[in-house]
Write a structure and sequence with these properties.
The chain has 2 helices and 4 strands. It is α+β, with helices and mostly antiparallel strands and 104 residues long. Strands 1-2-3-4 form a 4-stranded antiparallel β-sheet, covered by helices on one side.
């Protein structure tokens, strides 16, 4: 199990049972559990209608991350936290080319 899976479960339970929406309170919960992470946040503006989506991510030392998105048309605005596994390392030797090799 990755750290992000533990964190997403804890954060979603906490948010569902808590009356506070203070992010620092949630992050303190993870710190008490000795989960090491750093927080990233940003926004994406949709080209078609200009809608703004806010993205928040917690990246853990094992490479996994939790992610949530805030959009103007969502209620209560933020999605639930979801866990994302760390990306697998790319091994070019494991890739088999299906294209014929041609020399120039």
């Amino acid at each position: 199990m990755f750290d992000a899976e533990i964190a997403a479960t804890l954060l979603n339970r906490w948010i569902g049972q808590s009356s506070t929406t203070d992010l620092e309170t949630y992050l303190d919960l993870l710190r008490e559990g000795n989960l090491e992470f750093f927080r990233q946040s940003g926004r994406v503006v949709e080209a078609v209608d200009g809608g703004t989506f806010h993205v928040e991510s917690l990246v853990f030392v094992d490479g996994s991350r939790t992610l949530r998105v805030k959009a103007p048309d969502l209620a209560p605005h933020w999605t639930r936290w979801t866990a994302v596994e760390p990306p697998q390392a790319f091994n070019p030797d494991a890739v088999e080319s299906r294209l014929p090799f041609t020399s120039c």
